[in-house]
């Protein structure tokens, strides 16, 4: 199935007005080229990051295989000083390692207290803040988080969705991203917000027969590209080489719509969560209505949320 997806459209030199008025309301992924991101795309080399990023301990995922699975947890959590992580993640083989000499590393930066604080590169990596400019395509008060990401070459993240709009800024390196519309959720064999299908290029169709019906959208990101991922769009990210990315999430709905305990931006909206709770209670006493309620919930969360 590799290479048979629909290409994600690319636009160069898009202004704030063009994005907000014409592209954003379509609620579809797109790649922006030529955005002023600051000096990071040229400065953030392995040497620079390891020297300037500091020795602060960071929590990382370590996996013995390239395809990471958040459902079965085929990885372990470890901590490394940031400068050591950068050096190790850039290596193909490791002289120092936790599991194996070809293990893969993945950093998804966290807030100071991950249970209370969101990730913000401006707070966790202040010496790098001045190098990067975020696209000003949303209001400052909508800003939720900026997530610093580092991936080993070949690492593939599981297919999942987030409940907020976000820009994936590819600062250095190359990524391949495969996306699926929320409308195709019924074909993705979901466990929560994550798909059970790990090998999206050569899926086991005997085990996941409906997956072949999911329409995939694909793009390759190079340094300086910005991918707009609308809320609820599923995405699978493959790091084709060592690279650094920054996700910027923003609230496209009123703040009260979001779970106040959500520091990652991936918990279901509060109204949807309440609907599930109501549904659970109703099922115990009003079994006759369960089909109607499930249909309503699925349509509301996966089809009806056409935010503009």
UniProtKB/TrEMBL annotation:
<dbReference type="GO" id="GO:0031591">
    <property type="term" value="P:wybutosine biosynthetic process"/>
</dbReference>
<dbReference type="GO" id="GO:0102524">
    <property type="term" value="F:tRNA(Phe) (7-(3-amino-3-carboxypropyl)wyosine37-C2)-hydroxylase activity"/>
</dbReference>
<comment type="function">
    <text>tRNA hydroxylase that acts as a component of the wybutosine biosynthesis pathway. Wybutosine is a hyper modified guanosine with a tricyclic base found at the 3'-position adjacent to the anticodon of eukaryotic phenylalanine tRNA. Catalyzes the hydroxylation of 7-(a-amino-a-carboxypropyl)wyosine (yW-72) into undermodified hydroxywybutosine (OHyW*). OHyW* being further transformed into hydroxywybutosine (OHyW) by LCMT2/TYW4. OHyW is a derivative of wybutosine found in higher eukaryotes.</text>
</comment>
<dbReference type="InterPro" id="IPR003347">
    <property type="entry name" value="JmjC_dom"/>
</dbReference>
<feature type="domain" description="JmjC">
    <location>
        <begin position="123"/>
        <end position="267"/>
    </location>
</feature>
<keyword id="KW-0479">Metal-binding</keyword>
<protein>
    <recommendedName>
        <fullName>tRNA wybutosine-synthesizing protein 5</fullName>
        <ecNumber>1.14.11.42</ecNumber>
    </recommendedName>
</protein>
<dbReference type="GO" id="GO:0000049">
    <property type="term" value="F:tRNA binding"/>
</dbReference>
<keyword id="KW-0223">Dioxygenase</keyword>
<comment type="pathway">
    <text>tRNA modification; wybutosine-tRNA(Phe) biosynthesis.</text>
</comment>
<comment type="subunit">
    <text>Homodimer.</text>
</comment>
<dbReference type="Pfam" id="PF13621">
    <property type="entry name" value="Cupin_8"/>
</dbReference>
<keyword id="KW-0819">tRNA processing</keyword>
<dbReference type="GO" id="GO:0046872">
    <property type="term" value="F:metal ion binding"/>
</dbReference>
<keyword id="KW-0408">Iron</keyword>
<dbReference type="InterPro" id="IPR041667">
    <property type="entry name" value="Cupin_8"/>
</dbReference>
<comment type="similarity">
    <text>Belongs to the TYW5 family.</text>
</comment>
<keyword id="KW-0560">Oxidoreductase</keyword>
């Amino acid at each position: 199935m590799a290479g048979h997806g629909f290409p994600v459209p690319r636009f160069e030199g898009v202004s704030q007005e063009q994005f907000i008025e014409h592209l954003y309301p379509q609620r579809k992924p797109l790649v922006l080229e030529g955005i002023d991101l600051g000096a990071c795309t040229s400065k953030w080399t392995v040497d620079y990051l390891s020297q300037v990023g500091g020795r602060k301990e960071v929590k990382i995922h370590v996996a013995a295989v390239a395809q990471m699975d958040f459902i079965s947890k085929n990885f372990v959590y470890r901590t490394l000083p940031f400068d050591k992580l950068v050096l190790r993640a850039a290596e193909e083989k490791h002289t120092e390692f936790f599991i194996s000499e070809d293990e893969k590393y993945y950093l998804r930066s966290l807030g100071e207290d991950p249970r209370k604080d969101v990730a913000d590169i401006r707070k966790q990596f202040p010496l790098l803040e001045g190098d990067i400019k975020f696209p000003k395509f949303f209001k400052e008060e909508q800003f939720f988080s900026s997530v610093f990401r580092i991936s080993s070459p070949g690492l593939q993240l599981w297919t999942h969705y987030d409940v907020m709009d976000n820009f994936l800024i590819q600062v250095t390196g190359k990524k391949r991203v495969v996306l699926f519309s929320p409308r195709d959720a019924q074909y993705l064999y979901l466990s929560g917000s994550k798909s059970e299908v790990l090998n999206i290029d050569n899926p086991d169709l005997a085990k996941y027969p409906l997956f072949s019906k999911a329409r995939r959208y694909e793009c390759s990101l190079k340094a300086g590209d910005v991918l707009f991922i609308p809320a609820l769009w599923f995405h699978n990210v493959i790091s084709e080489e060592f690279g650094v990315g920054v996700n910027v999430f923003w609230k496209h709905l009123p703040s009260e719509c979001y779970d106040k305990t959500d520091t990652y931006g991936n918990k279901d909206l509060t109204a949807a969560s309440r609907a599930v709770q109501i549904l659970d209670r109703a099922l115990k006493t009003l079994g006759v209505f369960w089909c109607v309620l499930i249909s309503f919930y699925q349509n509301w969360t996966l089809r009806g949320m056409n935010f503009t």
